[in-house]
Amino acid sequence: MQSQAVESRSEGALVARVPEVCVVDDDGKLADEVAELFIRSAAGPPESPFRVALSGGSTPRKLYGRLASPKCDKRVKWSRVEFYFGDERCVPPDHVDSNFKVANDTLFRPLGIKATQIFRMECEAGQSDPAEPAAHRYEETIRRQFKVAPPAWPRFDLILLGLGDDGHTASLFPGTSALHEKTRAVVASTSPRGVRHRLTFTAPLINHARCIIFMAAGVDKAQALHAVVEDDTADANRYPGKLIQPIEGRLLWYLDRAAASSLGATTRREMRRT
Ligand code: 6PG
Predict the structure, then answer these.
(1) What DSSP state is assigned to residue 76?
(2) Average pLDDT over residues 200-220
(3) Distance 56 CA to ligand 1 centre (A)
(4) Is the beta carbon of 240 within 6 A of some atom in ligand 1?
(5) 11: CB partners within 8 A, 6+ apart
């Protein structure tokens, strides 16, 4: 199992930390569980912002629907939440493949989130010109909002991630140069499937977050999850999800039973079934 070796401040020894894995019956329960965690994480003083980077893909749709539902919508002080995106496809914001569109339709509009609280990756021009200028602009936006200049790293309160069946996360795809970025927070990337041109958070930016939650559902994710979560012999260049190892934050895996079906007994012992 991939244990997260962390430098323990006092002894200097590497202290292995097992991943926190939570398995639930299905994607509806997954949305329920992560919504409750989101609500707990977002609690805080009204004067300080809660900064979250949303995941792309389809898995978070149900989560966004739960957060905007009467069961949850009054349990978060939404006015203190700033919404960012961990990655985006270089398409217009009303395009069916836009990660912004998914969140806008299922979360921002239903909750009446103000435009000033939403930081969209504006990379629709990426299809015609390289997305790099948009990547630099987005990093400037993040650094300006967090008031953090290089070499320091902005620290998100929460980053939501998905995992592709090929082991990619955000838009960090196997075998791409974005995987090796060590100093920039946001870069252009390319996807082998679907919309080719993307923007993505880099692994160092993600790893500085206070809390990172992976959400994965469906048996098609099972092999990649086994490689990323517990196979120490698997290569991060092949399974980029392995790059996600928070420096000081928490890493949580929320999986449905089908996605967790290839995890070994040791990892499963770590699970809290809910
Ligand atoms: C994207 C994503 C990507 C996604 C995974 C899982 O823009 O596609 O951010 O990393 O999270 O591909 O996608 P599903 O949730 O659709 O399975």
Answers:
(1) S
(2) 98
(3) 5
(4) no
(5) none
